[in-house]
Amino acid sequence: MPQTKILLDENEIPSHWYNVVADMPSPPAPPLGPDGKPVGPDALAAIFPEALIEQEVSTERWIPIPEQVREIYRLWRPAPLYRAHRLEEALGTPARIYYKYEGVSPAGSHKPNTAVAQAYYNRQAGIKRLTTETGAGQWGSSLALAGQLFGLEVRVYMVRVSYEQKPFRRSMMHTWGAEVLASPSERTEAGRRILAGDPDSPGSLGIAISEAVQEAASRDDTNYALGSVLNHVLLHQTIIGQEAKRQFEKIGEYPDAIFAPCGGGSNFGGVAFPFLADKAAGREIRLVAVEPTSCPTLTKGHYAYDFGDAIGMTPLLLMYTLGHDFVPPGIHAGGLRYHGDSALVSQLHHEGLVEAVAVPQLATFEAGVRFARSEGILPAPESNHAICAVIEEALRCKESGESRVLFFNLSGHGHFDMAAYDSFFAGELEDFDYPEEAIEESLARLPKVG
Questions:
Q1: Which of 102, 330, 372, 364 is nearest to 237 (CA)?
Q2: Domain ranges for the chain
Q3: For residue range 7-50, what is the model confidence (pLDDT) as tens digits?
Q4: Are 206 and 326 within 8 A, CB to CB?
C-alpha cells in the first residue's frame, strides 16, 4: 500500500528553533518609536520577559528549546505529515500533495507551539498573569491551555464579531481557566474610546491588541502574549517546518511549492522559514502565503511603518499594512483578519523571496469541503485558504501534466468553527473584495515617519 502518514519518533522533536534572520539577505528593519527613531529592546520590557526580548532581536541561527517546553510538546509532537492520495485522485492531478497536520494539538491548531514557550518564559520571569487578544479563538484557546499548564492566569480580549460567532472557542478557553471578554470592552481606556465612537463596533485584532497591551503595561504582575506577527512568535513555529523537512527526507521527496494561510504570519513563517535557507542556497522552491481578498494585506497593502495595534501603543514596524485602524467586514467568516503582517514575512515578500496570493471566501469554503470529503479531516476556515491555493495549483498541474510536489500546512481543525460552515451551506456567506478606496482612506492615516 502507498504510504499515507509519515511519522517521526518523539526523540526526533527538534532541539532548537530556527531563526530565519540569520539567513536573510539584509538585516530586518528596526522598530521605531513615535518620534521615528529606532527603539531598542528596552521598549518591550514593560510587557515581555527578557528571554523573549532576546529572541525577538537575536541574529543567531539556532535558539535552544528548553527541555520543559519540549516535554510538553511531546503531548502532540511530532505532528504527522500526510500524503493526500484521495484528494489527488478526486482532482485527477499528477501532482503529489502533502500536508502537515497541526490539528493534533490539544487546542486543535499550531498555536500551542508558541503559547507553551511564551508561558514558560513568563513563568520563569515570575509573571503571574498574561493578557492577549484573539480573533477566531485559536490563539486564545492555546494560551489558555499554556496558562493552565504553567499556573498562570489568562485574560483574553476576543474580537467581538468572533466572540459572537464562535461560542465554543470561548467555552474551550473557559475550560482551561481563562477569562474571555468581547473586544472592544469597557474594561480598558482603549476599548471605551472605540465604543464611544462606535457603540456597535465589531472589533478588530488591532483593537483587541490595544486593550491587552494597555492592561499588561498597567500591572507589574502581568505581561502580554502575542499569537503571531513578532519575530519570537514565528521563531517558535519553525518546529513545524523542521519536522516536515525530516519527514520529506524519510521518503526521498522535496516540495516544489509550499502554501500556508497568512494573517499575521506565524502559520506561514513556521512552515516556510526552515526551507528558506535552501532557497537562498539556490534550491528551486516557491513559498506562497495565502490570504483572504477581504483582508488583502500582502497583496494590496502598503509596505510602510505602522502601529501593530489600533490606537498606537506599540512600536512602529515596517510591514505590509492596510492601516492600523482597518476593521475587516463582518461578513468575513474565515479568520486571518489582521491589518498588518509579520515584519519578517513582509520584508521577504518585499524582496521577492516569498509570494502572496489572495483567495475569495466562497472558494475557500468550497475547497475545505472538498478536502474534508476526500481526506476526512474537517479543516479550520483559516486552513482552507491554503487548501484553496493548493487545489488551484494541482489543477494547473493537471492541465500541464507536471508531477510536482505541493505541500501545505493544515494549521488546525474546524470542529469549533461549524457556525461558519453552517452559514456557508445555508448560502449566507458571500465574497467580499475589500474596496481600494477604503484601503486608501485607511492608509492616509499611516503615521508620518522621517
A1: 102
A2: 67-108+232-443
A3: 999 999 999 999 999 999 999 999 998 888 898 888 888 899 99
A4: yes
* Strands 153-159 vs 81-83: parallel, antiparallel or unpaired: unpaired
Give the model's pLDDT for residue 102. Answer: 98
Domain 67-108+232-443 adopts which CATH fold? Rossmann fold (3.40.50)
Residue 81's SS3 state is strand
Q: Model-level pTM?
A: 0.95
Tens of pLDDT, residue by residue over 76-96, are 999 999 999 999 999 999 999
- Tell me the pairing of strands 62-64 and 129-134: unpaired
DSSP for 265-323, please give it: SHHHHHHHHHHHHHHHTT---EEEEEEETTS-HHHHSEEEEEESSSSS-SPEEEEEES-
Gap between the Cα atoms of 73 and 404, Å rounded: 32
Q: Which residue has the cell 465574497?
A: 431
Retrieve residue 408's grid coordinates. 501545505
Instruction: For residue 186, give the 3-state DSSP assignment.
Output: coil
What are the C-alpha distances in Å from 368 to residues 54, 75, 181, 240, 374? 39, 27, 30, 21, 10
Residues 229 and 297 sit within 8 Å (Cβ to Cβ)? no
- Identity of residue 417: D
State the SS3 of 356-421: EEEECHHHHHHHHHHHHHHHCCCECHHHHHHHHHHHHHHHHHHHHCCCCEEEEEECEECCCCHHHH
- Among the listed residues 102, 427, 72, the one whose alpha carbon sits nearest the alpha carbon of residue 260: 102
Give the Cα separation of 311 and 117 in Å (integer).
28
